[in-house]
Each structure stands twice: as C-alpha cells, then as structure tokens.
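Collaborator request, handled under Task 6.
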Amino acid sequence: MKSGNKKRKRVKKVFNKGHLGTLILMIYDIITTNASYFLALVIRFDGTIYGIPRNYLEAHLKFAPFYAVICFSVFFIARMYNGVWKYASFNEAEKTVFGSAVASFLHILLITVFFTRMPLSYYFWGSCFQLGLLLVARFSYRFILLEFSRWRNLEKPKTVHRVMIIGAGEAGQMLLRSILRDKAAQDKVVCIIDDNPGKWNRYIDGIRIVGGKDYILYCVKKYRIDKIYIAIPSASRENKIEIINICEETNCEIKNLPDFYQYANSSVTVNSMRSISVEDLLGRDPIRADMQEVYSLIKGKTILVTGGGGSIGSELCRQIAAHEPEKLIIFDIYENNAYAIQQELLTKYPDLNLTVLIGSVRDSRRLDEVFGQYKPHMVYHAAAHKHVPLMEDSPCEAIKNNVIGTYKTAYTAMMNGCERFVLISTDKAVNPTNIMGASKRLCEMVIQAFDRSIKENKLENIPRLFTHAETGEDQGEVFFESFPDNIHTEFVAVRFGNVLGSNGSVVPLFKQQIERGGPVTITHPDIVRYFMTIPEAVSLVLLAGAYAHGGEIFVLDMGSPVKIETLARNLIKLSGLKPDVDIKIEYTGLRPGEKLYEEKLMAEEGLQTTPNKLIFIGNPIPFDIEEFRDSIEKLMKAAYDNSAEIKELVERIVPTYSADK
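Structure tokens returned to the collaborator:
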C-alpha cells in the first residue's frame, strides 16, 4: 500500500514539473501535422472538402495514423520536447526546422510509395503549414510571457535607471538582451551609441541607435540618462579613453566591459560590467605578451623571489605558481606579507611545492644558507626600499638595502650556480635626482659589473662584501674556498615606471584623500609620470628572464606619460564627485629629490628591439669596473657607518646623480 502511494506521489511530482505541457504539445503536434496536409489538400481543390477526389482523401486519412507515429518519433529524436519554451531561442527554432523537414520528407516518400501520388501543391503547402504551426506553438508562449511581463511592469511602476549603451556590436547586443530578459532589472535602455554611421537610426530589439560619440552629451540630456554602459571591448585604448572622458562630463554612473575574453565567451551581462578604474585611463593599450616561452622556462625549475610579499613580488609569485615550477621560494623580511601570499597560493594551488622563508637580503649568512640548501635556477630580485621621500631622509638605509642587498644576493646566486638573476629597477634610475633612484642605478651597475666579470673571466677581482667581518663571524672562506667551475649566471635588469596599485603608488593616497573629503594634494601642476599595471610589470620581469643574455636593461614602452593632476581629477570624477567643487586640489611643491618627469632610458643607452615590440633593451653604459668595485666597498662602509656624506659619495660613483638637485 505504501509502495503504491509512493508511486502515485512520484507520478504527481513528475506531472507537476512540466510534463503536462509536454503532453499537450505532443497532442498539438499530432493534430497539426496531419491538419496541415489536409488543409493543403482542401486549398488545392478550391477550398471545399467535397471537391477532393476520393483516392486523395482516402490516401490522406489512411496515412494519418502512421504519420502521427512518424512525427512523434522524429520530433522526439530531434529533442524537440526537451526545450524550456519560456526561453525559446534560435537553437529551438533550428531543432524545429530540422524535425519538420525530416517528417515532411518521410511523408512525401511513404504516402507516394504505399498509397498514391499526391498533387505537388499538397506536398509543398502541407510542409509549409506544418512548419509554421510547429514554430507558432513553440514561440507564442515566450511572446505571450514577454508581453505579459511588459504589461505587468507598466501596471506596477518602479524606480528604474535610464541607461545608454555605447557599442552596437555583438557585446552591446548581448548586454541589451541580458537587460531585457531580467525581470527584476531596474535598468531601462533608452538609446544606443555607436560610431558606425551605417547603424545610425536603426534599431536593436526596439532600441534606437541614435548616433556616434559626439551625441553622448546631447542624448544624456534628451533621454534623461543616469547610467552609461560602455560595451566596446575590442576598441582601441585611445578611443575608449576619449569616450570615457566625454562620459565623465556627465553626472551619470559609468560602467565598462573589462576585457575581450568576456565577450569572446558570450557571457556579457550586467554583472560583467564594472566601474571605470584608473587603469582604464592609461594612455596606451595593455601589454598582451606571448608568455609561452616564459612559462616553458619556469616549468620544472626552482624559482626564488626576494621581496615576494610586496606588490610586485606577490604578483610574480602568483604567475609563477600557475605554471608548474618544481619549487617556489618566497624570501621576505616582512612576515605579514609573506604569510598572506603563502596562504593565498596554498589555497589556490594546493599541489604547489612552496617554501616561505623570512630573512634579509643584507644578511649574507642567511643568503648563503638559503641558496646553498635550495640551489634556485632563477632569482627575481624584488626586495628594495622604494619610497622616495623616506629614502631622502634615510639615505644610508637605501644603500644598505638596495645596493648592498642586491650585491650580496647577486654574489650568492652566482656562487651557487643560478642560471638567471633578474633585478627589478625603476625609471627613477635614469638621471636620478633622489637617493632612491641613485641607489637603483647603482643596483643596475652591480648587475652589469657581475655580467662583465663573468664574460671577461675576471671573477677573482669580485670582492665579497661582509658587514660582520670585524667580529670574525662572517669570513668568506667559511662559505666559498674558491669559485666554482663554469659560472654562467645571466644578470639582467628590468626598468619600468610607476605601478598602479603598488605599495607607495600615488593612486591609493589619492583615494584615501578623496574618502576623507579632500583635499587631494599634488606636488606640482605640471608633474607627469609613466604608469603601468602590476600584471604588466610582472609580465615584463618574466619576459626579461626569458630574453636574457646578460647585462641588459629591459624597458617597457609605456606610451605617453600621464599628468598627475589629470589622474587626480579623473579619480575624483570616478568617485562621483566634482574636482574643485566637492573635492579641493592643493599644490604642495616638489618634495626633496622629486622631478617633474621621469625618463625611461639615459640618452646614451640607445634602444634595441626584442621579439615583443613593446619591450626594448638599453645598451649598457661602459664604466670602469675595477674602480666601481673599490667604490662599492667604500660605499658599504660609509653606509654602515651612517656617514653624513653618503650622498656625496654616491654622486662620485653615479655621474648623472647630483646630491644638490
């Protein structure tokens, strides 16, 4: 008894889940398929049943039961009963046309072979009526629901955002249809903008394409727009920036389709849109490098990243971890950052062979221990002090950490058979006006000195720098009695500009000032900087490791420099506020060591191309290596003595730096 009740409940459950609609549709199909051919027969003989010859009428009626079974079987095989007709689309239409065509072919063949040859109009019009009635049944349900939904929305008015879509391409069309399908949406698209004149004054799903970008401001007022969606993922960066700048002149909320991949995956919806960010305002297209060569180098290798918890270092670790290194070693002095990236990587890559070590690049004994134990194939040296004003006040710390730390790490890497050593430098190293930039130029000179010493086989002249030698604890012979055979380490440097979102970037500072209600402080109205995103910076660093032959300084073509005042004003606008009205802008004057513009290369360095057309190599500037080695030892001693003349000593080593600037 209980078993019988369970079966009845199961039948009822299935019945309630939509099978009644499928059953009704099947009955409709059986009736209309035969009725279609009967109607064709009636029309053929002047619209009267009595005028139909007896042999034709009998053939049709006798074949009708067989044709009902044929249609049911064909339609079932064609999966014409599996669709959710509430969302009927081209896919369902395609199935219906296919199923109807096969059924009509079988009708023509079988009735002719087994009964009699029918008039040609019977075959033609019967097939047409059948297809039309099948499509009507399947798409009328969606049409009725759509009209009912529109009527219901009119009956129950609600607050909606009046939306302008910029872009009438495939991405814009998918976005529009996503909004129209969403019953709960509070967006109402009222106009579309597209720069293709051939589309002007045409309609997409009832929405007019009113004109090009010159019409944006006019249409915002005319149609009372309060939200703008920019759906032009394949447009050039210059075109996007121009459109964004126009949109920022309005008080509308602006959202952008981030990248081409979303459009390519046919997943453009309102949720795909994001607010305009400062990255969207870079004066160039993002770097999209072919990283396959890089990833083939990383795979199966032991990689060490110094400063691996920092903004650049952590992104390096993320990209390296994604491409199957044999082992990834994160080396950082700041435990909180190191712990954060460790937990992130272990969560995302549970099979990653990861080691996180705490230590300083200024500690030669710790470096010897790490390199001796793990023998990394590649080193990405991101550890450094980078804050310009702070280093101006503590110049000896800049030398200790940046210059001596780089020297010790490079020396230890070379002595332990490292294949590649990649230094992360900065455009502030070009004609430096501050001690941070000068220290990074010294780091580049260190790398070039090591490279030349290896190539010229003058390793015996490379001094080992010890900061604890006077205690007798840190003697070179304890670690290396002699140079190993066949030293082949390739040393390169990577130079780029300001990194958006990195620690010390001006953007987070501006955002904090805007959140506090201002003012936003700018040192000078004419100051300009080159900018790049963190992923771009990391791509350049990784590519440098792949292209390395030793001694190069790699430089990214960062396009046109960005005026800091313009950047600040854009950030204020992106926050929905007005510069000089809601948020004041104040000028504080250039800080010590700060200059109005940064240079990517010294004039005498020149440029060489690489396989990536947006990445260049600066030719090494010759300098006296023997003299440089002696100077480095003196510089280290002065730094650890906290000498007040440290800047003057740096000035003697780096001719393009002036301590008086």
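The cover message to the collaborator said: "The two ends are 98 Å apart (CA to CA). The chain is about 50% helix and 15% strand. Please let us know whether this matches your experimental observations."
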